Amino acid sequence: MGIDEEQVMEFLRKKGSYLYHREGQELEFKVQFNLAGLADYFRDFAAFANNRGGHLIFGVQDSPRVPTGLSDTALEQFNKIDPERISGFLMEIFSSDIRWDQAIVERYSKSFGVFEIHEASTKPVIAKKNEGKDQVIRNGEIYYRYGGRTQLIRHAELENIIAARIAENNRQWQALVQRIGEAGPENAAILDTQRALIERRDAQVLVLDEKLAEKIRYLKKGEFNEEEGEVALQLVGDIVPVQQVEIVKRIKENRYREYPLSAMQLANEVKKQLPNVYQRQIWEAIRENGLKDNPAYSVYVFRNKTQEDQYKETGEAPAGLPSIYKPEALEFLLQVLSQK
What we know:
The protein has 340 residues and is α+β, with helices and mostly antiparallel strands. The chain is 34% helix and 19% strand. It has ten helices and 18 strands. Helix 7 packs across helix 10. The longest helix has 29 residues, at 155-183.
């Protein structure tokens, strides 16, 4: 997804000697970045995610708001951030996936660290454990962004989140029941994409193997154009009558044989062969060349089915989602970075 740099530049716009924009529901300034303060930043992550999303910008002095930029130490620490490790921490601490991006932005001949946090698709995001110095994050708490501060959520906002979640769940059920009614209960079946099963009444089950499930195509009613519509279902492959099929075990392909490198292993291998390359440059090369979205080099490691479904539907992976890489990715990065 990536940081919207134009938006960040606007946030850093000056009026005289000071910044024009103040902190608000979608903006928080920090003087410097420190890895020791991650729990405080994570608290803001959750608060932004429970509201409309927002930005954390490091390198801005408070009262008055002066764009001082990151110090050399803070810049070095910001460059050490491992997105996959941070995303792992967030998954351990909070109940829902928090999507985020990071970047270093240059303005006024200074460097600013930026986190962009996206609105959560599943709210509320709830703390699952205590974390940080003095337990700045506490088990069971819900944080929300009000004005220019992060605090515990109030009754009205929590009630709105719950009501919206119930309404969306009801909408999905209504749409499903309507489709069943149109088809007729006697003709309806359930396609369970998680278990790769199609279930009908009287426990009749059709089992799809991994390769066959990937060949499912959706066709527009009355047409045979695979690029249009999503009403009828075509199964490409050998289909056995439902009554004769036994339940079989679905075995997933072991992709780690084909993609043996984690992001950090990949980065370490690059730095081993190109000692003058910074880790930040490696992440930038991966992003700029689209390696994470190219199965010739990498695949995503989805933490749950919701993430995988979201990626299939939108083509956008949650921010910080771990990837595993082929050896070809190492060869590509060495070639690209050796030319810089």
